[in-house]
Amino acid sequence: MDINIGKKAAGERAVDFLQPGMTVGLGTGSTAYYAIKRIGGMVRDGLVIRAVATSEESARLAELEQIPLVPFDQVEVIDIDIDGADEVNDQLQLIKGGGGALLREKIIAASSKEMIVVVDENKLVKTLGKFPLPVEIIPFAWELTFRHLVALGANPVTRMLGNERFVTDNGNYILDCSFGQITDAVELNTQLKEIPGIVENGLFLNYASAVIVGYKDGTIKEITRPYPATKSF
Ligand SMILES: O=C[C@H](O)[C@H](O)[C@H](O)COP(=O)(O)O
Fold first, then answer.
1. Confidence check on the interface: ipTM exceeds 0.90, yes or no
2. Distance, CA 101 to ligand 1 centroid (Å)?
3. What residue owns the CA closest to ligand 1's atom 3?
4. CATH assignment of 133-201?
5. Which residues, including other chains, have CB under 8 Å from residue 95's CB and lie 6 or more apart?
6. How far is ligand 1, taken at its centre, from the CA of residue 106, in Å?
7. Could you tell me the residue ranges of all domains in the chain?
8. Which of 32, 65, 143, 208 has its CA 20 to 30 A from that of 121?
9. Residue 63 is among the residues annotated as catalytic for this protein
């Protein structure tokens, strides 16, 4: 229960940065949930914004909350993206995709002027890699992609949902990859991008503009990037 106090504090605080007229990216997961819920309350109280969702799950929540959604292809730029993370290091590099939403999350983060990451205190790490890195792969020849990842030392495990393979919103599979401590995330990201069959991986290296950390006593800490995020597309 305590953990949700931190998630709620962080998720709700991020919403303070919204301004009327903005286009907002709605993240996925149990922390972004609190941001979406608060945005919903503000919209019902008269705040005019429009939003794009990073997953079907977040789109459903936004609809319940009466937040106006626009299809991503009708949006040129997103003002603020509020999203969670599975791990954050002190360079504001992230692992994301614990909920399987990494591909749309990365597309939306890359299209956003600001990405505010909301996490509870347990997500802060010195070195990325304790949380297995989610890698989204296309079903075609997935065994071959799996073998490429084994050769890279990824120890991949196919994500399951009950007895079936987990399938993303994009119709793909997820391999959860344990590389051990990821000391050079930039190099790993480059290596993963060279493997055919990988659609995207959960390393978000230059996206977060700020991280809001929520603690179990309800306090928050805001960490801003000392230099502007440079996004590579
Ligand atoms: O695919 C899911 C997303 O990347 C989530 O934002 C991430 O897993 C963090 O989720 P939560 O806030 O539930 O820990």
1. yes
2. 8
3. 97
4. 3.30.70.260
5. 85, 86, 87, 128, 129, 131, 133, 134, 202, 203, 204
6. 12
7. 2-124+205-221, 133-201
8. 65
9. no
